[in-house]
Design brief:
The chain has a single domain, classed as Rossmann fold, CATH 3.40.50. The chain has a 6-stranded mixed β-sheet, sandwiched between helices. Helix content is about 45%, strand content about 20%. By secondary structure, the chain is an alpha/beta fold. The relative contact order is 0.16. It has 7 helices and 6 strands. It starts with a helix and ends with a helix.
């Protein structure tokens, strides 16, 4: 009889867990990816402040300011037609094919600090890729519209995202700058929606929110 109750208890617990998983609200995780200094954290902060009043993390002109993924949960975005989507925004470290501590010396860092930052940035890239493989349901891929979109890291990352069959919105950021050329980004990735914005000034972010509702809702 003791064995019966132990077995029954185990089955009951498993069944309860199964019901909880079945009825639990699915949480859509949207990762903000892109090369360093594309404006990922600026956009993450913009989204979080617009819909929750909070921020996600600090920004800096120094590359790899974000060296650990930061997640803001339960952001509810609504559109002009009344549609809404609830999502977690994951601000990921900048992805690059090379991290050299010497680039940080140019910003006035001491050598020891620069070496530590380079190591942390390398670990951050690995963490960002882990999120992409395991826990991301959709991607906002950030590009600085003043730079060449055909960089190796962009081609590689878009290929990985496509291989995972994840919905992706490409954001051509920094259109407030005089050298901005978002048309180059559209021509580089015509297979995906491209939204041109200024994350810093908030220009065209309403268009981005509507596109997020369409592709991530």
């Amino acid at each position: 009889m003791k064995i019966f109750y132990q077995t029954f208890g185990t089955v009951k617990k498993k069944f309860s867990n199964l019901l909880n998983q079945f009825f639990k609200k699915k949480r859509t995780r949207i990762g903000i990816y892109g090369p360093p200094n594309a404006g990922k954290t600026t956009l993450a902060n913009r989204i979080a402040r617009d819909w929750t009043g909070d921020a996600v993390g600090p920004v800096s002109e120094i590359p790899h300011e974000t060296r650990r993924a930061r997640r803001k949960e339960d952001i509810i975005i609504s559109g002009a037609n009344g549609n809404t989507v609830t999502m977690d925004i994951v601000d990921t470290p900048g992805v690059t094919t090379k991290i050299d501590y010497h680039e940080f010396l140019e910003f006035g860092m001491e050598k020891d600090e620069a070496i530590i930052r380079a190591r942390e940035a390398t670990e951050g890239v690995a963490e960002a890729m882990h999120w992409l493989r395991e826990d991301i349901d959709g991607v906002i891929y950030m590009l600085d519209s003043t730079t060449d979109p055909f960089m190796q890291v962009n081609i590689m990352m878009i290929g990985i995202i496509e291989a995972r069959n994840l919905p992706v919105i490409i954001v051509a950021n920094k259109i407030d700058l005089p050298d901005a050329a978002p048309a180059r980004i559209r021509s580089a990735f015509p297979q995906h929606p491209v939204v041109s914005i200024s994350g810093l000034q908030g220009r065209n972010v309403e268009d981005l929110y509507e596109t997020m509702l369409e592709y991530f809702g």
